[in-house]
Design a protein that fits this description.
The complex is a heterodimer. In chain A, α3 crosses α4 and α4 crosses α5. Chain A is elongated, with a radius of gyration of 30 Å. By secondary structure, chain A is of the alpha/beta class. Helix content of chain A is 39%, strand content 14%. Chain B is α/β, with parallel strands linked by helices. Helix content of chain B is 30%, strand content 22%. Chain B contains four helices and eight strands; from the N terminus they run ααβββββαβαββ. In chain B, the strands form two sheets. In chain B, strands 5-4-3-6-7 form a five-stranded mixed β-sheet. In chain B, strands 1-8 form a two-stranded parallel sheet. In chain B, α3 packs across α4. Chain B is elongated, with a radius of gyration of 33 Å. The N and C termini of chain B lie far apart (71 Å). The chains are: A alpha/beta, B alpha/beta. At the A-B interface, α2, β1 and α4 of A face α2, β1, β2, β4 and β6 of B. β1 of chain A pairs antiparallel with β7 of chain B.
């Protein structure tokens, strides 16, 4: 009787927890290693929906359209005249914010369309450089509008009013990507 | 002066003496100078669970070279689970050589460009808010990019992102 009691006292069933931290550390290091921290960032675009039964896209008046053409040699044409990429941002702003003043520029910001056309042989980085300038023009216009409303920049304004706000509704980015011309200089590109 | 000589053979002291001791000999307090490590596994587990939840496994083996162009007007895509990648660039060969331009979607190289339509239609039915991240090599031609975009339009995958590096980041 006495012996039985003694035994029960001695055997306390315990799991050794000293190595628990080590095991958890190992798992932690594994997940640290496989985690990808780089956030995908890029220029967001909305493609036009598929055209039903040969329907034509809605017509745009000539003066509201800013034609940007980038050829296979990386040369830029704006309204059929040679242009430098560095001046494109100001030109887009001038076009969008014309509000009917100059005859060759847009009637109102929302009617203004920037059309980017390339050739099949145009290098992708040249195209991105042009597209980036056009987007930056819109961002700078939004920033200016936000500052006029007493915000530091457009991001602060958007944080308050959401992405569908009045600035975005007033200056809506209409960027159209035309299908490239079939001049097939070097389709395979950079190799 | 008698009190700090011996701790072992402690004589019975009146409470007043004890109080005086506490003021003078705080440094010799009986608490052990050890950090309690009992909660360490819990902290580590917490970190572990955080990383487990936030991890998206690298499941793709990119077989084409994509040196992304630089841009300024960037938008971050926070919801990684909405994103499907399309890689366009010259195919990687042995010894850093590159071959002809190829298209890769998720982890399969595309041989027939019209098959993109079926793949994207399948993806868009499972994830209607799909964003197609175009990771295109800067030297690619616009012809192949446009062909892929036409296929995306046919499939109804209209939200795209031209994945780019931040200008001047030097990466």
């Amino acid at each position: 009787m006495a012996g039985l009691l003694k035994r029960r006292k001695r055997h306390t069933a315990e799991i050794p927890t000293a190595s628990m931290a080590d095991v958890a550390f190992l798992l932690l290091i594994f997940f640290l290693a496989v985690t990808t921290i780089d956030v995908d960032q890029g220029i967001l675009m909305q493609l036009p929906p598929k055209l039903e039964d040969e329907a034509q896209p809605p017509p745009v008046e000539e003066r509201n359209l800013l034609k940007v053409y980038l050829n296979g040699q990386g040369q830029l044409l704006v309204e059929d005249a040679p242009f430098s990429v560095g001046d494109l941002r100001e030109e887009v702003k001038k076009h969008v914010l014309n509000r009917g003043q100059l005859p060759n520029y847009s009637e109102s910001p929302n009617q203004a369309v920037v059309s980017i056309k390339t050739e099949r042989g145009t290098r992708y980085d040249a195209y991105i450089a042009v597209l980036d300038e056009v987007w930056m023009a819109y961002r700078e216009m939004w920033d200016a509008e936000a500052r006029a409303r007493g915000y530091a920049h457009y991001d602060a304004f958007r944080a308050t009013y959401g992405s569908e706000n009045e600035i975005h509704a007033a200056i809506r980015p209409n960027i159209s990507i035309a299908e490239p011309d079939a001049i097939d200089a070097d389709d395979s590109g950079g190799s | 002066m008698q009190c700090h000589r011996s701790r072992a053979g402690r004589p019975a002291r009146d409470p007043w003496t004890y109080r005086v001791m506490a003021i003078h000999y705080k440094r010799k307090a009986k608490t052990k100078q050890e950090i309690p490590t009992a909660s360490l596994p819990d902290i580590i587990f917490l970190l572990l669970i955080f990383f487990m939840v936030s991890t998206v496994m690298r499941e793709q083996d990119v077989q084409v070279r994509t040196i992304l162009p630089e841009a300024e007007a960037l938008t971050k895509i926070d919801q990684k689970r909405l994103v499907s990648h399309v890689y366009i660039g010259p195919r990687r060969l042995a010894d850093d050589a590159v071959g002809e331009s190829m298209v890769q979607i998720d982890d399969a190289l595309i041989t027939d460009i019209t098959s993109i339509r079926a793949i994207m239609t399948r993806l868009i039915t499972t994830q209607p808010n799909l964003i197609v991240s175009m990771r295109v090599d800067e030297g690619s031609g616009m012809g192949v990019v446009s062909d892929v975009q036409q296929e995306l339009r046919e499939a109804g995958a209209l939200r795209i992102s031209y994945s780019s590096r931040r200008e001047g980041s030097g990466l």
